[in-house]
Amino acid sequence: MRRSHLRFLVVSMLGVLALVVAACGGSDNDSSSSGGSSTSSSKSSSGGSAGTDNTKAANVQGKKGGTITMLAGSDVDFLDPGRSYFTQGYMVIYPTQRTLYSFKPQDSAKPVPDLAESDPEISADKKTITVKLRSGVKFSPPVNREVTSKDVKYSFERFFSENVGGQYGAYFSSIVGAPSSPTKGVKPISGIETPDDHTIVFHLKDASAVPVAAALVMPITAPVPEDYAKKFDAKNPSTYNTHLVATGPYMVKNDAKGNAIGYKAGKSIALVRNPNWDPKTDYRPAYLDAVNIRTNSSDANVASKQVLDGQSMLFDANPPANIIKEVATQIKDQYVQIPSGGYRYFPINTTIKPFDNINVRRAVLAAFDRNAARLARGGKFTADIPTHFLPPDFPGFDEAGGYDGPGYDFLSTKNESGDMALAAEYMKKAGYPSGKFTGNQEFLMVSANVDPNKAQAEVAKAQFEKLGFHIRLRLVPQDSVYNDWCQVRSKKVAVCGGAGWFKDFADPQSMLEPVFAGYTIPKNPDALNNNMAQLRDPKVDAAMKKAALLDGDERLKAWGEIDKMITGDAPAIPFVWDKTTLIRSKNVNGVANGYYTAWDFAWTSLK
Amino acid sequence: MAAYILRRLLWTVLLLLVITAVTFVIFYVLPSGDPAKLRAGRSPSPETIAAIRHSLGLDKSLPVQYWEYIKKLVLHFDFGNSYVNDQPVKTLMFDRLPNTMFLVFGAAIIWFVAGVFIGIVSAVARGSFWDRFLMGGALVAISAPVYWLGLVALYLFANDIGVWHVFPGAGAYQDAHGFFHKAWTLVMPWLVLSAAFAAIYARLLRSNLLETMSEDYIRTARAKGLREKRVILRHGVRSAITPVITVLGLDIGILMGGAILTETVFNIDGIGRLSYDAIQRGDVSTIQGTTLVLALAVAIMSLVVDVLYAFLDPRVRY
Questions:
Q1: How far is A20 from chain B (nearest CA, A)?
Q2: What is the CATH number of the domain that holds A361?
């Protein structure tokens, strides 16, 4: 090549590179901050939030009117309150439906009466729950009549039908007459009574009223009018999902016949005001006139930039880690960060030798570099490192030791990056004088074959190998990690390469019992088992059974103590308490709801 | 010719049947996860899983399941419902198919025209500055991943997040109405999608044309006193372009199954994005539907290419 041509090419390439760098650098002029309150790297205050103060944002008297566009990476699972079981669905359901109880953005730990008039009344034997319903709550068009307790009863009954296919029936299985498997058609549940139009009574088989009452925040409790919905529920699957009626301040746009014309699956959801909503019956301010949700904003990087640079927009979920870092360090006033209400952990199979030895498990925890595992999921801007299981801002968290934890040396704030000397001490106590495992057997670890799960499993493998364990990491499709491996006892998985347990409602029993109670392990070794560590500690089991009957502060204290006991047993390595980061345009006063960890349309407003 | 096309169409039907069988085996006999368990929610009882399996028809024998699938497909053109949101797969696909077609055919026109033009210029001006410049550019275009190129294009030229507000940004296509408005919103995606293809076509045509231009019949054409332009276009390019047409047909067919990355970056609601979401969520019926669309597109495009051969190459007769 002639030199002049070469020079020309080099200069051209440099020019292109300069443009690319300028583009990738983002718009620095937008990064100035006014009123940004805190950074996200530090552990949260009692509010559990970073970025803008969510409580403060919720207390702002918002401007009435306006339309917001939300960019969402994926569609809702369902809009039907009987079917939905994911955050995206909840994000639409809670501003459009009145559940018996719900959460204000200011407090995601204590529910408040919503369709209910007051707190649930629990009988002394903890076997009956009575809920009084508010008057004056009406269904949206085309139903247009007042809600009665029979509508709530029908909502429960249809939930258990095959055509609707409710997904969390286990929480309500103690209701007398609750079906143990999906019913053909909607069948009555004898344990739910409606003595009058504004009273509903739940009769339970056992003394489980406290956790069942706590679960009355779930979408199953949103009323569904039988007279209108019956014809849709007769089909399999039910088509009520596209013929919804609302009771909340907003509704999915519909036509005179009730067809949800505002819902285009996989494309968009249009929320408009519910003309039959009476603000006097509700605690929500509902400032906005309308919300347009685009459920196909496929590239999170691009969508995040559009929200941050644009007007009147929200992003529905965690933006990519690079954007989180950017908003946390530069654009400090356009995001809010709230605890995700769950924990991620690596279950250690306590039935496989030598992990049946508590000191071996404690050694693993002591050596484990949880910081590295957190890095695999996005780093310090996306999660805190746990010292026990119950997550921040959750009932029982403080009682279990808060951020500092119960005080075990093998899982403390001091050894977030692992402490090999301490691990060696525990290994010696376990009978390994060298401080390391000296056996030859191979242990099976199973993980999803995609990041971040794959990356976190690779970190975990390296941590076990530091202590001399030979790990065979089997990577499988995400769909089969739990259902075909980690949750199936007969597969003898020694370490699950990552699991997560997130709240369905604010009760510590629901966070610990299914995951660590020995009595929940099914007898059939091929049945799905949530207790992946297969922990069977009689003391923990007895404490759980006792704590299940408690109420109020006593309950929190008891479950906090149980969390400490489980942590002491070291059946798993808790490695992150996720934080949800939500971003918004500059002219939006975004308010997040800590219960379903997403933006709350009924509180958000335009500036 | 008509008999040949009919014969090929019958073979295409047979091919599609084989593909349905293969996809059925992959997704139903060797699934990555049990669809019933995936739908059963938290802490499901074995009875619940069994009931869901029954309602999905997964408790029937595999031949029966396959027969019912084919029956619905052939008689009612019914691909079943999405396991994720119960929407008919047919509706999900055919809502998105026009978007993918618009994206792919628009880009194909650009990459074909650009690729052929650059290939001819480079071959004719072999060894010149322009040859080296264009082939160097082609190398850059081939090396740039479409996802990265899309992001860079948006960050530079999108009218919402770009440094220079030139072209409509990501998601603009969904708000556009009318052919020309939609086409305007696709200019950037077309350019991004076509960059690598144009480069490959240019290099392919250049090498074919260089080889063709050294053939005896080209020398004869020149000796007969034909103008150089006519020699190149009528005799050289016509012969050299045949393999390019083959690749074009297959590329269009494959992209009809989804230009996943382009659709993702520019937020175009197409088949590719639908497939990707379905794979992410283990939505077997949707995956199967989009796989069939891809197979059909490839089969049809290869037929079109074979028919085109007859017009391009006088030696080919059916």
A1: 6
A2: 3.10.105.10
